[in-house]
């Protein structure tokens, strides 16, 4: 049997994974573990997802085969999940810190590295939203679009764009892939590391122009920047902020609250999903349960090949390789996927990994 441990493929670059030093992860994880034990007892969920991790290692991707035909939403389950998640976080509030919570010069401790601090600069402060960018917003159907290469040749673009609210990850390019991924983006995440990886660290003017152009395409969508997770990206965040201000971009910046990741993790732990750190994709699903009656997931696929054995790229838009099971990785994407698959089968969300049917 071929090992599926390596080179898993799915959306979501980890939050700032690139900046970690392994030893620090170990320490912060330990720290989180103790912090979270109290929370796990709060909620008695009935989901009881069986997250026996071993089967992920034994089986191949076909373990997670699911069918989209005849999928039906279970509205009462959706409401139940929303209510359960609300005990841990209110996405309206936790989706972003707000300006009134800080003043320039305030020092905050990084969420996953409490010993390190960040100073709130004038630019950062001026870009904090006055009120939550998601306040009072409700949608009938939402798409959460992961970045897996499983989207290539899917022809899902039109279907994705037909949703009322489209969430994307890590400033993924869309125009060149519109037929498969669509172009609509109402909410898009951006790890600070993207500046280095996709925009040459803003070394020269053309990199900066490319970035400004990409952001201007977003119009007044929400740009969600996890700036307070770990030390390492603050320089990039500052550059991004000053480009937004200098070019008067309309994009609505948001910076996740300091408690968000712990709360999301706490919710999943109570459902017996033992993720060390939720991926951006899982964060987005968890947040969107607050705003969306029907959640459709695309581009989630943590395997190096599809059901037929064809290779699947980690990202649909680049050649990045990713070792999901290396010890340095804080994520458990196959476990997350297994969980989402269970939720699909129960009608809590719809997971599309195949081709989209043309209407
Ligand atoms: C979870 O799945 C494993 C592997 O399929 C199985 O052995 C175990 O009994 C299951 N546990 C529960 C609680 O269903
Ligand atoms: C929908 O979910 C509820 C709550 O989890 C459950 O009791 C019910 O049996 C489900 N209905 C269907 C049709 O699966
Ligand atoms: C943050 O602010 C403190 C106190 O104002 C200052 O001592 C420190 O050098 C600042 N750090 C950075 C990285 O700007
Ligand atoms: C800017 O940098 C990119 C790579 O980051 C390179 O492809 C491009 O040629 C450079 N442009 C100029 C004008 O130096
Ligand atoms: C932003 O506005 C332009 C021009 O109206 C439009 O072509 C584009 O699709 C919009 N972008 C998004 C992400 O909605």
Automatic annotation (TrEMBL):
Membrane topology qualifier: Single-pass type II membrane protein
Major subcellular site: Golgi
Signal peptide feature range: 1-26
Gene Ontology CC: one annotated term: Golgi membrane
S-S pairs: 142-292
Pfam name, any one: Glyco_transf_29
Localization in the cell: Golgi apparatus membrane; Secreted
Single GO term (MF): alpha-N-acetylneuraminate alpha-2,8-sialyltransferase activity
Catalytic activity annotation: [N-acetyl-alpha-D-neuraminosyl-(2->8)](n) + CMP-N-acetyl-beta-neuraminate = [N-acetyl-alpha-D-neuraminosyl-(2->8)](n+1) + CMP + H(+)
GO biological process: N-glycan processing; oligosaccharide metabolic process
Top-level division of the source organism's lineage: Eukaryota
InterPro entries in alphabetical order: Glyco_trans_29, Glycosyltr_29_Sialyltrsf, GT29-like_sf, Sialyl_trans
UniProtKB keywords: Disulfide bond, Glycoprotein, Glycosyltransferase, Golgi apparatus, Membrane, Secreted, Signal, Signal-anchor, Transferase, Transmembrane, Transmembrane helix
Similarity section: Belongs to the glycosyltransferase 29 family.
Purpose: Catalyzes the transfer of a sialic acid from a CMP-linked sialic acid donor onto a terminal alpha-2,3-, alpha-2,6-, or alpha-2,8-linked sialic acid of an N-linked glycan protein acceptor through alpha-2,8-linkages. Therefore, participates in polysialic acid synthesis on various sialylated N-acetyllactosaminyl oligosaccharides, including NCAM1 N-glycans, FETUB N-glycans and AHSG. It is noteworthy that alpha-2,3-linked sialic acid is apparently a better acceptor than alpha-2,6-linked sialic acid.
Protein name in the entry: CMP-N-acetylneuraminate-poly-alpha-2,8-sialyltransferase
Organism of this sequence: Geotrypetes seraphini (Gaboon caecilian)
């Amino acid at each position: 049997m071929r090992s599926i441990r390596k080179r898993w493929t799915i959306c979501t670059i980890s939050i700032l994974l690139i900046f970690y030093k392994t030893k620090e992860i170990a320490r912060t994880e330990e720290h989180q573990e103790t912090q979270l034990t109290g929370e796990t007892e709060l909620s008695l969920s009935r989901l009881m997802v069986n997250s026996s991790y071993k089967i992920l290692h034994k089986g191949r991707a076909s373990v997670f085969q699911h069918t989209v035909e005849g999928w039906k939403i279970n509205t009462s389950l959706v409401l139940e999940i929303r209510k359960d998640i609300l005990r841990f976080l209110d996405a309206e509030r936790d989706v972003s810190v707000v300006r009134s919570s800080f003043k320039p010069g305030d020092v905050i401790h990084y969420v996953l590295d409490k010993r390190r601090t960040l100073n709130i600069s004038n630019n950062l402060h001026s870009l904090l939203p006055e009120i939550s960018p998601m306040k009072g917003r409700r949608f009938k159907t939402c798409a959460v679009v992961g970045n897996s290469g499983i989207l290539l040749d899917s022809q899902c673009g039109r279907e994705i764009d037909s949703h009322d609210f489209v969430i994307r990850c890590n400033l993924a390019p869309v125009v060149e892939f519109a037929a498969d991924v669509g172009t609509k983006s109402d909410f898009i995440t951006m790890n600070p590391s993207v500046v280095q990886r996709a925009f040459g660290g803003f070394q020269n003017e053309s990199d900066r122009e490319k970035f400004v152009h990409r952001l201007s395409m977003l119009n007044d969508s929400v740009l969600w920047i996890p700036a307070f997770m770990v030390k390492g990206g603050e320089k990039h965040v500052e550059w991004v902020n000053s480009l937004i201000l200098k070019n008067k971009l309309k994009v609505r910046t948001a910076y996740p609250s300091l408690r968000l990741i712990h709360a999301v993790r706490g919710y999943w732990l109570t459902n017996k999903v033992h993720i060390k750190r939720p991926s951006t994709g899982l964060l987005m699903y968890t947040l969107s349960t607050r705003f969306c009656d029907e959640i459709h997931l695309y581009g989630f696929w943590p395997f190096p090949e599809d059901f037929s054995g064809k290779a699947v790229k980690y990202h649909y838009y680049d050649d990045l390789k990713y070792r999901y099971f290396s010890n340095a990785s804080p994520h458990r994407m196959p476990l997350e996927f297994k969980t989402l698959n269970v939720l699909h089968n129960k009608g809590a969300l719809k997971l599309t990994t195949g081709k989209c049917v043309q209407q």
